[in-house]
Write a structure and sequence with these properties.
This protein is α/β, with parallel strands linked by helices and 501 residues long. Helices cover 40% and strands 19% of the residues. It has a seven-stranded mixed beta sheet with strand order 14-15-16-13-12-18-19, sandwiched between helices. The protein has a five-stranded parallel beta sheet with strand order 9-8-7-10-11, sandwiched between helices. Helix 4 runs antiparallel to helix 7, helix 5 runs parallel beside helix 6 and helix 10 packs across helix 11. The longest helix is centred in the N-terminal third of the chain and has 21 residues. The chain is globular. Belongs to the aldehyde dehydrogenase family. Pfam families: Aldedh. This is Aldehyde dehydrogenase.
């Protein structure tokens, strides 16, 4: 989870920059910006105002086929795939520098496209640049292996790029999720086709311009805006795509695995949904600080976060007092104009997601949970829902089991360590978990018992590029960040050489 960064610009300056933007709306295929083959477009809308920002190319099967062909030709040609890792590093570092130089524009594009506060978008840009630099710097420092043999043989283990990688990324962290996917794939020598969400394509198309300026060879990086059921499906079914890297819902992740099986058994790396437990034991210190973090864990980015701490599990001896502190923290996290640097929350991404969140709030009331906040959207234009807190939630309620992807917190009580672990693990998901305690023995016991890809102890999502990110169970099977993601975007080749005596 990225943090808000202090904005160097005022609200008026952000608006002036927005008014001056020249948006790229065409797909980027084979080193050229082009309209969709059939001329189709899709509208991308600012959810804070309802304003249509642009009509963007909506790619389909023909566009996917053209991009895959160009990617395969680039890969087989070797201008990137066989380039020395140190030289690939220089190009990717140049791209990172260009992203940093244009960070205000890139952050603004994500804010306008999906409604997140500009301070949050600036934090995303820092994360995206750091990711690109990390993988660029890592790629020429990874070695192959020499197998242990006798004097009559030499065994080598080589690491080679996969080929053509299709990266399908979500709308909640548009450019940061893009960096998590494309940085290791490009560093490893693959050709990459990026399919941004139809709800947030603008920063990806600007990134394509920067990639060309940085010197990525023709066909090595391409961007296909469009819908998942059209161009996304075409990429997933392509016999010439070697890998699918996806972040998004569990339902779509399951479809992509089916498409891989129906086509060429391409590798599929998934980072899917979550319903993450955040466990607060009575022995933790500084409840005000913990409550602030617990609120931010769900209300950051309007709750549109795969690892959002949406299930707050609190030991009953402190529950009443702690929930009051969370409510006070939530009052300081109200939504506002995304271009105002003071806004903690922004707008919900679109009308469909807005209605989905409101429906879950209604269901929570109907199922008997105690609504501790207003639970109503803000009046006026824009899709704004304030922080919503339910207490007395049980694991039989939809709000306690299903991923809402909005600013809705479900509070559970527990009386024992065993009960806390049972509640935490009673989920289809296993992306993240939080644990707040001062008892080191308890921390080690509970951490090992939690079925989760990552556990945050006395923090929520305080990570950097050195640790992998990903889940277990129906939260997926892939890992982003760290050198482990570089391993996913390469294949092992064993070479056995018989030596003359």
């Amino acid at each position: 989870m990225t943090e808000h960064r202090k904005s160097p610009l005022s609200r008026a300056e952000w608006q002036a920059l927005a008014d001056s933007l020249v948006l790229e709306t065409r797909a980027y295929i084979d080193d050229a910006f082009v309209d969709a083959a059939d001329g189709a477009t899709l509208s991308t809308t600012n959810p804070a105002t309802g304003e249509v920002l642009a009509e963007v190319a909506s790619c389909d099967v023909a566009d996917a086929e053209a991009a895959v062909s160009a990617a395969r030709q680039a890969f087989d040609g070797g201008a990137w795939s066989r380039l020395a890792p140190g030289r690939r590093k220089k190009v990717l570092l140049r791209l990172a520098d260009l992203m940093e130089a244009n960070r205000h524009e890139l952050a603004l594009l994500d804010t306008l496209d999906m409604g997140k506060p500009v301070g949050s978008s600036l934090g995303d840009m820092s994360g995206a640049v750091a990711c690109l630099r990390h993988h660029a710097e890592s790629i020429d420092k990874l070695y192959g292996e020499v197998a242990p043999t006798g004097d009559d043989a030499l065994g080598l283990v080589l690491r080679e790029p996969l080929g053509v990688v299709a990266s399908i990324v979500p709308w909640n962290f548009p450019l940061m999720m893009t960096a998590w996917k494309i940085a290791p794939a490009l560093a490893a020598g693959n050709s990459v086709i990026l399919k941004p969400s139809e709800k947030s394509p603008l920063s990806a198309l600007r990134l394509a311009q920067l990639a060309r300026e940085a010197g990525l060879p023709r066909g090595v990086f391409q961007v296909l805006p469009g819908y998942g059921h059209s161009v996304g499906k075409a990429l997933a079914l392509s016999m010439d795509v070697d890998c699918l890297a996806f972040t998004g819902s569990t339902g779509v992740g399951k479809q992509l695995m089916q498409y891989a099986g129906q086509s060429n058994l391409k590798k599929v790396f998934l980072e899917c949904g979550g319903k993450s437990p955040n466990i607060v034991f009575a022995d933790c210190k500084n409840l005000d600080r913990v409550a602030e973090h617990a609120a931010a864990a769900i209300f950051h980015n309007q709750g549109e976060v795969c690892i959002a701490g949406s299930r707050l599990l609190v030991e009953n001896t402190i529950r009443e007092a702690f929930v009051e502190k969370v409510l006070a923290a939530a009052e300081r996290m109200q939504p506002g104009d995304p271009l105002d640097p003071a806004s903690f929350m922004g707008a919900i991404v679109d009308q469909a997601q807005y209605e989905r969140v409101l429906d879950y709030i209604r269901r929570g009331v109907e199922e008997g949970a105690t609504l501790r906040t207003r639970g109503q959207p803000l009046d006026g234009p824009g899709l704004f829902i304030p922080p919503t807190v339910f207490d007395d939630v049980t694991d039989a309620m939809a709000i306690g089991r299903e991923e809402i992807f909005g600013p809705v917190l479900s509070v559970f009580g527990f009386d024992s360590e065993d009960e806390a672990v049972r509640l935490a693990n009673d989920s289809d998901y296993g992306l993240a978990a939080g644990l707040w305690s001062q008892d080191i023995d308890r921390i080690m016991r509970v951490t090992r018992r939690l079925r989760s890809g990552q556990v945050f102890v006395n923090n929520w999502a305080d990570m950097d590029q050195t640790v992998p990110f990903g889940g277990v169970k129906q939260s997926g099977n892939g890992r982003d960040k760290s050198h482990h993601s570089l391993e996913e975007y390469s294949d092992l080749k064993s070479v056995w050489m018989t030596l003359s005596p």
